[in-house]
Amino acid sequence: MHYDVVIAGGGFAGAYCAKTLGRLLGRGGEKRVALIAERNVLVFQPMLAEVAGSSLSPTAVVNPLRQLCRHVDVLQGHIRRIDWAAKTLSLDGGRFTRDHQVTFDHLVLALGSVTDLSRVPGMADHGRPMKSVADALRLRSTLINRLEEANLVEDPAVRARLLTFVVVGGGYTGVETAGQVHDFLRGSQKFYANLRGARIRVVLVHGHGGLLAEIGPRLGEHALRVLQKRGIEVRLETRVAEATASKVLFAAGAFVEAHTIISTIGNAPNPVVLDLCRQLGIETEKGRVPAEPVLRARGQTHLWTIGDCAAVPWNDRGELKTAPPTAQLALRQGVQLAQNIHRFFQGRPLRPFTYRYLGQLATIGEREAVAEVLGFRFSGFLAWWMWRTVYLAKLPGVLRRLRVMIDWTFDLVFPRDLSLLLPPPDEIIRPIHLEKGELLFERGEVCRAFFYLRKGGLTLRAEGEPDRVLGPGAIIDQAELGADNRWRSRAFAAESADIVVIRGRAHELLQKELRLTAR
């Protein structure tokens, strides 16, 4: 498959570039322009927190790319690599299309960033990201499952961990998610007979001295006061050092016991973009591709770049800076680049990217928000009303706006929906992280999984026997079980440890196979 222009990335920048270019080319554009996206929808990410908090339906925050981007060929697939010398992209389209080749003359890089939680031990195993609709739905189901379990148990320590929710990151996503999680839990608590009066903790952890740095210290301080007044615990200048299934440990040595960790940090440069820059000898700016004012990659003629992966020069009210990675600017860059590519085809001069910054808004729950618009600052109910008005206007499509209006209207009058849409995941193989001294299983517990020690050390302590310390590569299986399928030892981390847990159907099959082998 060959195209004149391939747009890599289906976020705001790529989608609006494709939409505008398709409109300019008209009929027949499908043969010339392709948009490659990992999902066939544009996700309106500023509203993901409302999906997690059950304020909005998930279909209200997505727009099918095939309907949004007319006269453009939309290809769903994950870009594995770009070979610039051959002008070829290798796509993984799914189970039966693992290595599909697409060639191009011009390439638009709009891939954005990726999530990398591996820098904090255990965060990739236990932290729940908030990047997609699937993430928001999984978080919503997790919140409901935690309430259901807490309503069931009587042990106060277990119930306290189940009703503690830690949100890591004090930017837009973190603050909005913390507010929505708090609203949802508080509004739902009254429907659980055994939780009335129980303490629900939402803890927002941020590594810097103030929240919402993008919006300025004054509104960040107001957001902090409102969150604290509503009962959300905010820990500033606090960095997470380690995360386990039941605990969040901080660099200063303190910790919070919780079974739910929501991570809104961990943005990292896209490895496909970094690899392409290495091929072309381009030195990135903190992982972003340096762009010319006309949105062409610096020093290139057929490579263009926009969105979060691009370092675009931007004149912000007389101050020259690099455009921040926000949806507001990504959308305008996409439109501007489409117009420039169309001018390039016509042999007309290209225009530099210019845009007057309008401001930023962030909701902090319970009809409260903070906003900075055209240099003026607002907070409280007025800012919340502005937030909803502005984002409603930004949603693509009249039908989608109508759906959101209906959802928001119901949210003002009726309690949020507690229906459990997704069951608890049956993860047959799952990585976990243990801090030093943390328990893996207790002697006498029924075996529900086998374990593979990937990193660190484990101590097995059996009654009347000397301790045994296991190292990387060790397997804990039915050799450690008694005749009643219960563990003969107590297992805990001798040091910080990464473990692969084999459970569910895989565990049952492995047990059966080991029994047959033993015979």
Description of the structure:
- The chain is of the alpha/beta class and 519 residues long.
- It folds into 3 domains: 2-38 and 77-114 and 268-357, 3-Layer(bba) Sandwich (FAD/NAD(P)-binding domain); 123-265 and 360-413, 3-Layer(bba) Sandwich (FAD/NAD(P)-binding domain); 429-518, Jelly Rolls (Sandwich), CATH 2.60.120.
- 31% of the residues lie in helices and 29% in strands.
- It contains 13 helices and 34 strands.
- Strands 1, 2, 5, 6, 7, 8 and 20 form a 7-stranded mixed beta sheet that branches. It has a 5-stranded parallel beta sheet with strand order 10-17-11-12-13. The protein has a 4-stranded antiparallel beta sheet with strand order 27-34-29-32.
- Strand 24 (359-365) and strand 25 (368-373) form a beta hairpin.
- Helix 1 runs parallel beside helix 10 (327-346) and helix 5 (133-152) packs antiparallel against helix 6 (156-162).
- The radius of gyration is 26 Å and the shape is globular.
- The mean pLDDT is 90.
